[in-house]
Write a structure and sequence with these properties.
With about 280 residues, the protein is an alpha/beta fold. It has helices spanning about 5-10, 30-40, 60-65, 85-90, 120-125, 135-145, 165-180, 185, 190-200, 210-220, 225-230, 240-245, 250-275; strands at about 45-50, 55, 70-75, 75-80, 115, 150, 155-160.
């Protein structure tokens, strides 16, 4: 519906490389679409670029150079909304990609723009749907079997990301559920759990002193947003920074609730599996 096919046919004669177009079924899940793309690929290197992202002109050169010595390559994402909105400001506060090398490249595994050696993707296919943790899960599982991963600062991509509050809410719900469900592999997010415990404790304070209790509760509620605001104070226009900080708590709460639900669901699933496995 966004004229992708017509655009490809129109641009094909002017492109400096051959393009092969394959039309999948309507509303194909993102994981299934990626797996099909990998299967169809004839080259030994595969790259993913999301529809809401734009790579820098030298991205491909940096990606190919990185894959000479590694199996998976990820780079920095720059928050570049088409139009600033409250939702875009809230999402912008969550960006924390380093502009230089890092000793923890797995933290920034994202298929918004990523490059792989094809055997990695054949060995570790994506789940058919999207759970907001599939990128990191693939990288962690591949790394555990000896595949190398790198963070290439030159692989810069400009990410438009969310445009509405509803999209931002859905993204936080999906991210929270995915991170909680796969916490055994991704690691427990202790800062999130600590904030939840602190929030639960602060919620009891208004019963003892209404004014001071509400003030303390508000302070705890806005604590994650204020931390992100301080980190991005030089990266975003001041008015958008303030809007993002002011509007963040509902989305942080949504992430927390879904994260806890994901953790509990994972534990129930593990207990069920243990009962099904014979002694």
């Amino acid at each position: 519906t966004d004229r992708t096919v017509q655009t490809i046919h129109h641009q094909d004669p002017f492109l400096p490389f051959p393009v092969r177009l394959h039309l999948g079924p309507p509303r194909m899940p993102i994981g299934a679409a990626r797996n099909l793309g990998v299967k169809l690929a004839r080259a030994p290197l595969v790259a993913f670029v999301s529809a809401d992202a734009e790579i820098e002109p030298d991205w491909v050169a940096h990606a190919m150079a990185s894959l000479e010595t590694t199996d998976m390559a990820f780079g920095p994402q720059v928050h570049a909304p088409q139009q600033w909105s409250v939702a875009a400001a809230v999402r912008g506060l969550r960006y924390q990609f380093p502009r230089g090398p890092t000793a923890t490249p797995l933290r920034f595994a994202s298929n918004v723009a990523a490059a792989y050696r094809k055997p990695v993707l054949l060995r570790f296919p994506f789940e058919p749907g999207a759970n907001a943790a599939e990128d990191l899960l693939l990288a962690i599982r591949a790394k555990a079997t000896g595949h190398a991963v790198t963070y290439a600062p030159g692989m810069v991509v400009r990410h438009r990301d969310v445009g509405s509050l509803r999209q931002e809410l859905r993204k936080n719900l999906r991210e929270g559920a995915g991170c909680g469900r796969y916490a055994a592999e991704l690691g427990v997010q202790w800062p999130v759990l600590a904030w939840g415990a602190l929030l639960a404790a602060a919620a009891t304070l208004p019963f003892f002193n209404l004014a001071w209790g509400l003030a303390a509760l508000a302070g705890v509620l806005w604590l994650p947003a204020l931390r992100r605001g301080l980190r991005h104070r030089k990266d975003m226009p001041a008015r958008h920074l303030m809007a993002g900080v002011a509007a963040s708590p509902p989305f942080d709460l949504a992430f927390l609730v879904q994260y806890l639900r994901g953790l509990l669901g994972a534990r129930r699933h593990a207990r069920q599996r243990s009962k099904e496995i014979p002694a």
